[in-house]
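Section 5: illustrative case.
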C-alpha cells in the first residue's frame, strides 16, 4: 500500500494573486475603451481624435489599474502579515492556551475530544506548522501563500492593455468605421466571457452573453451621449 493517499482529483488555484486582476483588467480594458471610443466617435468622425482618445484611455487605464491593484493587494498583504505576527506572538507567549484553542477548533469540526487533543499536540510541536494552521483557521490565510502585489499589478496592467487595444485595432489599420470596431469588440467580449467560464461554474454561453450585454450597453449609452454632445456643438 502506498504511504501517501492516492489523489483522484486536482483543484484549481483559487487564492492566487493573478486571476482576479487579470480577468477584471481585461474586461475593464475592453469595456471601458470600447465605450470611450464609441462615445468619441458619436461626437466626431475625425480618426485622429478617436485614436488619441483610445490611446489615452488605454494608457491611463492600464497604469491606473496596475497602481490600484498594487496598493490594494499590498495593503491586504500587510494586514495579513500584521495579524500573522500577532498570532506568532501568542503562540510564543501562551503555547498551552493556543494548543487548547486548536483542539477546540477541531472538536467544533466534528473530531472527538481525545483525538483533537492529540492532533493539536502533534501540530504544536512544530512552531511554523502550528502558526500556519492557526492562521488558516483564524484568519483564512496561508502565511506561505499570500498574494503578491507585483503579480497583481503586472497582471492587471497587461490584461487591461490587451483588452483596451482591441477596439482600436481597426482604426490602427486604417479602417475608420465604428461598426468594425464594434464587431471586433463584441466578438472579443463574447470570447472573454466564455474564457472566464473555464475557471468558474458558469456555462460558456452564459458568461459570454453576460459580458457582451454589459459591454454593448455601456458602449451604446456612451455613443448616445457623445452623439448628443456633438450635435449640440459643445
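Designed sequence:
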Amino acid at each position: 500500500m502506498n504511504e501517501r493517499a492516492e489523489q483522484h482529483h486536482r483543484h484549481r488555484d483559487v487564492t492566487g494573486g493573478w486571476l482576479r486582476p487579470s480577468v477584471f483588467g481585461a474586461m475593464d480594458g475592453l469595456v471601458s475603451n470600447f465605450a470611450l471610443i464609441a462615445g468619441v466617435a458619436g461626437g466626431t468622425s475625425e480618426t485622429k481624435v478617436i485614436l488619441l482618445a483610445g490611446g489615452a484611455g488605454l494608457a491611463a487605464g492600464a497604469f491606473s489599474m496596475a497602481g490600484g491593484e498594487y496598493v490594494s493587494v499590498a495593503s491586504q498583504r500587510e494586514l495579513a502579515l500584521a495579524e500573522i505576527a500577532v498570532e506568532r506572538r501568542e503562540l510564543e507567549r501562551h503555547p498551552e492556551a493556543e494548543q487548547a484553542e486548536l483542539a477546540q477548533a477541531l472538536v467544533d469540526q466534528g473530531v472527538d475530544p481525545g483525538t483533537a487533543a492529540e492532533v493539536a499536540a502533534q501540530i504544536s510541536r512544530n512552531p511554523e506548522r502550528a502558526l500556519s494552521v492557526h492562521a488558516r483557521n483564524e484568519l483564512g490565510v496561508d502565511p506561505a501563500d499570500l498574494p503578491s502585489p507585483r503579480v497583481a499589478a503586472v497582471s492587471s496592467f497587461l490584461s487591461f492593455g490587451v483588452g483596451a487595444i482591441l477596439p482600436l485595432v481597426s482604426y490602427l489599420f486604417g479602417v475608420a468605421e465604428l461598426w468594425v470596431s464594434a464587431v471586433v469588440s463584441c466578438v472579443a467580449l463574447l470570447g472573454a466571457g466564455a474564457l472566464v467560464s473555464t475557471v468558474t461554474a458558469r456555462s460558456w454561453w452564459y458568461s459570454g452573453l453576460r459580458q457582451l450585454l454589459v459591454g454593448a450597453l455601456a458602449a451604446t449609452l456612451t455613443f448616445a451621449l457623445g452623439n448628443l454632445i456633438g450635435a449640440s456643438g459643445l
